[in-house]
Amino acid sequence: MLQPFESGELIAFNLNTGKILWQEHIFGEGKGMGFAVATPDGIDPDYVNSLKPLFMTQPLMTKENVYITSTNQPMSTNIPALYSFGKNTGTINFVQDLPTVFNFFKPVEFNGFIFVNSAV
């Protein structure tokens, strides 16, 4: 099970035991930079709180990966992004910038491609 929170936390856990398998923190900064995600230690709470609510879609889980978008706040200067994580480890695969800041829906997979729809 994977649960996103408006704080930017993304937590994978075992639904039967409640054990946390991995967790990452998404700051909503696209720009294709790997440092957009950090582990919970060493995060400045004031910085994270300034980004809330960090709107995120429901994740797409494939056999090996998890995909989720950050949509940010409509007036934010941060660039929204599509994030890809290893499903079992939480290792970041990539961060890809997206062209709009709101109304994203769950990413979908078709023929090995990942698509992100927007109502905008």
Q: Your description of this structure?
A:
This is Pyrrolo-quinoline quinone. The chain contains 1 helix and 10 strands. The chain has 120 residues and is mainly β. The chain has a single domain, classed as Lipocalin (Beta Barrel), CATH 2.40.128. The strands form 3 sheets. It has a 4-stranded antiparallel sheet with strand order 1-2-3-4, with no helix packed on it. A hairpin with a 3-residue loop joins strand 5 and strand 6 (65-70). The termini are far apart. Residues 30-39 have low confidence and may be disordered.
Features:
36% strand, Lipocalin, 6% helix, mainly beta, 4-stranded antiparallel beta sheet, 120 residues
Structural class by sheet pairing and helices: mainly beta
Number of strands: 10
CATH architecture type:
Beta Barrel
Approximately how much beta-strand content do the residues carry? 35-45%
Task: Count structural domains.
Answer: 1
Measured between the Cα atoms of the first and last residue, the distance is 29 Å
Overall 3D shape: globular
| Model regions low in confidence, pLDDT < 50 over at least 5 residues | 30-39
- For this structure, the CATH topology is Lipocalin
Mean pLDDT over all positions: 76
Total helical segments: 1
Order of helices and strands: EEEEHEEEEEE
Spatially, the strands of the biggest sheet line up as 1-2-3-4
What's the gyration radius in Å? 14 Å
Helix content: under 10%
Question: CATH first level: which class?
Answer: Mainly Beta
